Amino acid sequence: MSEPGEHTRAVHTPAFTQPKQRPLGLPVYRTAAFGFDSAQEYADVLGDRAPGYSYSRIDNPTVDAFAAGVAALEGHRLDAAVVGQAFASGMAAISTVLLTFLEAGGHVVASRELYGGTYSLLHTVLPKYGVDVTWIDVADVEQVRAAFRPTTRVLWVETIANPTLTVADLPALAGVAHEAGAIFCVDSTFASPVVCRPLEHGVDIVVHSATKYLGGHSDATGGVAVGVPSLIDRVRALRVDLGGSLSPDEAFLLHRGLATLPLRVLRANDSALTVASKLEGHPALERVHHPGLSSHRDHGLATRLFDTGRYGGIVTVDLRGGRDAGMAFCDRLRLAELATSLAGTHTVVSHVASTTHRQLDDAALAAAGLSPGAVRISVGLEDADDLVADITQALEPGRRPPPL
Ligand SMILES: Cc1ncc(COP(=O)(O)O)c(C=O)c1O
Q1: Within 13 A of 204's CA, how many CA atoms are on the CB side?
Q2: Which of 18, 44, 205, 260 stands the most exposed, by the fewest C-beta atoms within 10 Å?
Q3: Are strands 374-378 and 223-227 parallel, antiparallel or unpaired?
């Protein structure tokens, strides 16, 4: 063959060779496709007959490293193998898991207290494809049992519900789901594996919005589902078809977040308990929700299911005075950011009825046990005393807030 031309040489630079030494940082495999040495190898990898990578919507090493990291954290006490699949967002994980186990005519039993996006998926999207949903109160295990039908395929709850912080009795619910032959799926975004590992309590599949604690810096969007290979392999197959796969760049950021996950979650836990304890009884508040408070209905359950002294980093406060009071409180905060999302380095607040749960009308809000004045506070890594001072000044409507 004659000397290749300029364009060919520009495209075919010397091949990348793997260094012998292991990189301490996770390499980002920013490639859409992988090359093969033979047509047979190509066919075998693409046909799932041999391990390997072909196309990054299907699998990518950086993405797999992140999913394996979460699976190791969620499953470290289990004898059974636990594997993970990563997604482009928490909603991609949730929708793919649900669709994996449902078909037209199928039925879901779902908690009334769910993240608004999950509620919307179950309430408006899945019924269009012939899926029926029954909403239940997770605290009423007999009601949950009664909601099951012969066609029930999935029980769906959140470990710590958004934003009421209701804790699900995972072992009791797992018993009910398994008696009925259904898959028990739990969104454990608010807990993170540092607070609770639902697979230890009989749950079949755990999903996370990795955008939250797992990534932890509000700079990457992703989702993940973990469980035993026989279930997660089915989830992977549908992820490949639906295409909600995580990008390697986002996977790098989310994987980096895992290294500091316990440090961040434990600090947020401690500060959240301080904030909740100091706010409880404040005259501007109807109620303070935090599972670490002995006044919380599920305090005993949380103490039983969660690692000692860990109750999560979220506090929800119900302002007296409804929507207007809730929104005015948010406007008066100076340190806490008014923003979507949660579980990052910064303390972030949302007025629930106008933001995360905007899909719920007043009747649905009441049914989910939500007050129109509820404000969710995701406690960040700032000093707890500074947060208490900021929140307390914002609860005093007569006083002019300090300048921004
Ligand atoms: C509990 C919970 N689950 C799922 C999601 C959806 O995750 P994502 O925004 O990454 O799609 C969120 C988002 O706020 C959430 O709070």
Answers
A1: 24
A2: 18
A3: unpaired
Mention every residue, 6+ apart, whose C-beta is less than 8 A from residue 279.
285, 288, 315, 317, 388, 391, 392, 395
What sign does the dihedral 126-157-74-191 (CA atoms) show? positive
Q: Which amino acid, 286?
A: E
- Closest residue by CA, ligand 1 atom 6: 90
Q: 167: which DSSP letter?
A: B
Tokens 């994980």, residue?
93
Mean pLDDT by runs of 10 across the 404 residues of the chain is 92 92 96 97 96 98 98 95 98 98 98 90 97 96 98 98 93 98 98 98 98 98 98 98 98 98 98 98 96 97 98 97 94 95 95 85 78 96 98 85 62
| DSSP 8-state class, residue 80 | S
DSSP tag of 1: -
Q: Which protein residues touch ligand 1 with a CB less than 6 Å away?
A: 89-91, 115, 117, 158, 162, 187, 189-190, 209, 211, 221, 223
CB 326 within 8 A of CB 373: yes
Report the alpha-carbon distance of residue 61 to residue 69 in Å, rounded: 12
Are 330 and 319 in contact by the 8 Å Cβ rule? The answer is no
Radius of gyration of the chain (CA): 23
User: Strands 183-187 and 205-209, how do they pair?
Assistant: parallel
Atom of ligand 1 nearest to the CA of 341: 14
Residue with tokens 């699998």: 59
